[in-house]
Amino acid sequence: MIAAATRGLYFARTSLRGIAATPGTAIVATATITVALVLVGAFGLVVLNMQELLARVGDAVQVTAFLTEGLPEADRTALAARVGDLEGVAGARLVSEAEALERFRGGVGQGFALLEGLGANPLPASIEVTLEDAYRTSADLSRIASVVARLPGVADITSGADWVEGYVRALALVRGLAIGLGVIFVLATTLIVSNTIRLAVLSRRDELEILALVGASRAFVNTPFLIEGLLQGAAAGLTAWTLLYALFRLVLPGFESGLELVLGGIAPRFFDAAESAWLCGGGAGLGLLGSAIAVASEARR
Amino acid sequence: MRPRARWRSPASRAEAKRAATGEAAAQLFHVSKSYVAGTYALRDVSLEFGRGEFVFLTGPSGAGKTSLLRLVFAAERPSEGQIVVLGRNASRISQHSVPELRRRIGVVFQDFKLLARRTVEENVGLALDVVATPRRVARARVFEVLKQVGLQHRRYQSPLSLSGGEQQRVAIARALINEPDILLADEPTGNLDPDLTLEIMDLIADTATRGTTVVVATHDQSILGRFRKRTVRLEAGRVTEDRAAPGAAK
After folding, report:
1. Percent of chain A, pLDDT > 90?
2. Residue A168: is its pLDDT beyond 80?
3. CA distances (Å), A42 to each of A27, A46, A89, A168, B190, in order?
4. Which of A159, A192, A227 is the endpoint of a domain?
């Protein structure tokens, strides 16, 4: 226990001393990881918010089947039950002409006066078809809409298939871009970090030689460098999080109209605690990976 | 596992080391070392260094003195032959076991090999850090060894602020901190003036009286004349002379 604590203290002291001895390489490594994390994090935020929108809009994704005028009540109920049994349909709700008018009235407010002169209710009865989560895709929307459209008693049909298809495609593109850039940044960052840590290893070669001379194991010699990488990565993670948060709070409000276009009426959100921990942890992991590659390649020399 | 703390008087340590097994501290059997094909730094060298023995390795530059020392502390492996150091076959030892062997061997170099960014105390205590000696114990031990070499008052200074002789004394203190079974010194006085040379050699010779096997590589004839010890002469990688200390039993 005492030996472990003594060793831990030695490693912590040596790591901090190492960073202080080569501040230039420490700054380069930390800055590199920070830049990579900010870029990946920014894309991550966009994807996150677009996904959020899709999830929320998903609840409203539905097929509306307008019924032929004068369809008897029994047929309407039977038709709703039949639609409700279709594969992928979560629910089929019958909306009467009166309910449709009531909704319209609630929706237009003062403008309702415009309908006063029409006399009879012009709105048709309909069946609102909501889909199970797994079927909220444009393909399933189209499939279900075409099946429902062919049922007797259905006069017309509407669905958000086109909108959903376009949005899902855009989301997939942004997500793919984020993953692609993420992979490139991780590889590039690992390479740069491992090379900067290698410079630190080389600049302390005399120390490593002496440590080996007095009986230090390879793990003993390498551990401080791994801790250095971990600390630099964690610092980069925190810095990246802070920068992203600052951008989110200070810069994003200036692009409200653009955001409106992408996210609709949904207010953009920042990373939650778990996602923030992933960002900082990712930085620490990148630093550790870079250090591990550096010490492994130096050990092979 | 070898006990880490062995606090006994120098006399009892010496007796214990000599009586422990009776085996040699290091034995070389037909050892050759070649860095470039066809060229040998050492050629068919067979030697034995007894426990507590003081041995000079001498010979011109390039004779193979340093190579021989590097083989003993497992910095390199022989191209041919076998080396047994402190009961372990150093020619076949795994990389994993090398640190354990090195903790029983102290090494002193001509260029001191001290860390400029660390204090004298930290330099000397490095070998104790490696074996996770608690800080309080380590500081006490470092103070004791620095006192032996007369530098306890310099312990918080940078090695760069010390004279050449003082730096070498720090290097010796570092080599002795773990009470090694073998002390290897490669031209330890090569950078020092004659007065400091004697001072350093007295310190090293004193180590042998405590039971540590001491092997000193030097080409300084004045040292060989003054310290009349067993002398092994190497030339072009071969042992050309192995002269026992005057008065020593054959």
Report:
1. 18
2. no
3. 22, 6, 36, 19, 61
4. A159
* d(CA B24, nearest CA chain A) in Å: 21
Bridge-partner residues for B130, per DSSP? Answer: none
Q: What is the DSSP letter of B234?
A: E
Collect all residues of chain A within an 8 Å Cβ-Cβ radius of residue B117. Answer: 17, 21, 207
- The larger pLDDT score, comparing residue A175 to residue B8, is at A175
DSSP-derived pairing of the beta strands A154-159 and B54-58 = unpaired
Under 8 Å CB-to-CB from A98, ≥6 apart: which residues?
Answer: A121
What is the distance in angstroms between the Cα of A28 and the nearest Cα belonging to chain B?
A: 22
Note the pLDDT tens digit of each residue in B199-234: 888 888 888 888 899 999 998 888 898 888 999 999
pTM passes above 0.80: no
For residues A197 and A280, state if they share a domain: yes
Residues 6+ apart with CB under 8 A from A41: A240, A241, A244, A271, A279
Last residue of a domain, one of A127, A159, A191: A159
The tokens of A294 are what?
């550096």
Cross-chain residue pair B135–A9, CB shorter than 8 Å: yes
Residue among A3, A4, A216 whose CB faces B99 most closely: A216
CA distances (Å), origin A101, targets A92, A96, A272:
19, 9, 42
| CB burial readout A218-227, b (16+ within 10 A) else e | bebbbbbbbb
Domain count, chain A: 2
Cα(first)–Cα(last) distance of chain A, in Å? 34
**Are A39 and A179 within one domain?**
yes
> With a cut of 50, which residues of chain B have pLDDT below it?
1-20, 249-250
Could you list the residue range(s) of the whole structural domain that residue A222 is in? 2-56+165-300
Which of B130, B132, B135 has the CB atom closest to A214's CB atom? B130
CATH number at residue A140: 3.30.70.3040
Nearest by CB: A215 against B114, B117, B130 = B130
- B110: phi then psi, degrees, rounded to nearest 5: -60, -40
Q: How many CB pairs under 8 A join A and B?
A: 55
Residues of A near B (Cβ–Cβ under 8 Å) read: 2-4, 6-7, 9-10, 17, 21, 206-207, 209-218, 220
Question: pLDDT digit string (tens) for A252-279?
Answer: 777 776 666 666 666 788 999 999 999 9
Whether A238 and A104 map to the same domain: the answer is: no
